[in-house]
TrEMBL record:
GO molecular function: hydrolase activity
Record's keyword annotation contains RNA-binding: no
Protein name from the UniProt record: Hydrolase MhqD
Origin species: Jeotgalicoccus meleagridis
Top-rank lineage group of the source organism: Bacteria
Any single Pfam family the record assigns to this protein: Abhydrolase_2
InterPro entries reported for this sequence: AB_hydrolase_fold, PLipase/COase/thioEstase
Every Phospholipase/carboxylesterase/thioesterase domain range: 4-189
Keywords: Hydrolase
The keyword Hydrolase is annotated on this UniProt entry: yes
Length: 197
């Protein structure tokens, strides 16, 4: 996988940056810098191509996931993060997922499959169009969600579904609403306040 690793401060938390459709491993670096410049960064490029655009997993249409592909690529990404944690000497406990859109979606899938490993995430414009069988134990998880009113890609009921998945698992959830499918400065400011609370 193509990636950037940047150590800013030994033993600081590590942002795992996961871009949206059409993005790359450089997209969210400025966001990380604004959120917490001392945090270390592992930024990954999705390996799937959709009409030439980078993604983390295949889909069959807007909001219609190839769940089998998501499962395979999610586990590959988990193993990649584990490998990098050993290579760069950071703890998986220190990982904070920071995702936008497609990146948020694979981050959420990794957390659902590995709630004991990944416990902190900032998810901007997430979509998870599936009902879980039972609740996941997210009682040790801290989640920041930025969701869109009038989002043309994620219906409001689906945004509420994301909130429900985490709250039903007893996560500590902070959610804000912004306009559309976006990552505006207000979301960044709220996210920074959440990190520093």
């Amino acid at each position: 996988m193509e990636y950037i690793y940047k150590e800013n401060k030994k033993d600081a938390p590590v942002f795992v940056l996961l871009h949206g459709t059409g993005g790359s491993e450089t997209d969210l670096l400025p966001l990380a810098q604004v959120l917490a410049p001392d945090y270390n960064v592992l930024s990954v490029r999705g390996e799937v191509k959709e009409n030439g655009m980078n993604r983390f997993f295949r889909r069959l249409g807007e909001g219609n996931y190839d769940w089998e592909d998501l499962e395979v690529r999610s586990e590959a990404l988990v193993n990649f993060i584990k490998d990098k944690s050993q290579e760069h000497d950071f703890s998986l406990e220190d990982v904070i997922f920071v995702g936008f859109s497609n990146g948020s979606n694979i981050a959420m899938h990794m957390m659902i499959n590995h709630p004991e490993t990944f416990k902190k995430a900032m998810l901007f414009a997430p979509l998870y169009p599936k009902n879980l069988e039972g609740n996941i134990d997210f009682s040790k998880a801290e989640i920041f969600l930025s969701l869109g009113k009038g989002d043309p890609i994620v219906p409001e009921e689906q945004s509420n579904h994301v909130i429900d998945i985490f709250e039903d698992g007893n996560a500590d959830v902070t959610s804000i609403w912004v306009n559309g499918h976006s990552l505006p400065s207000e979301a960044v400011e709220h996210g920074r306040a959440w990190l520093n609370r």
